[in-house]
Amino acid sequence: MSNIHHQQTRRNRPTKALLEHNLNEVYRLMIADMTSRDIMQHLKLNDRTFRRYVRKIRDRNVTDQLAKRQEYFLYDVKLAKERLLMAKRFNLGTINSSDATYTEKTEALKLDAAITMTLLK
Description:
Helix content: over 70%
Radius of gyration: 30 Å
Mean pLDDT: 88
Number of domains: 1
Strand content: under 5%
Largest sheet: none
């Protein structure tokens, strides 16, 4: 009786460094405007491996783009906070000013309350 079902064959998998090199090469050739077929022939890749590499490259690019968006978002939030704090300081100057009218002080107090609520959110 044959023991074929219990035999395991090891597939040759590239090391992480080689995989990274291959991904970079595929990406470089894609940017150089080579066709998929030309890239596969140039790097001696089969179709399935090439498609897997392209998927990994796209996933990596999406991840990088999301990280950049988050970085920009956090910068925008910081900038908005600084602007609100500057407006708050200006309003406090109006509130504490002896030259401001009652109406100006009232408006400054309303704005200060609105800014405070926005900053607390």
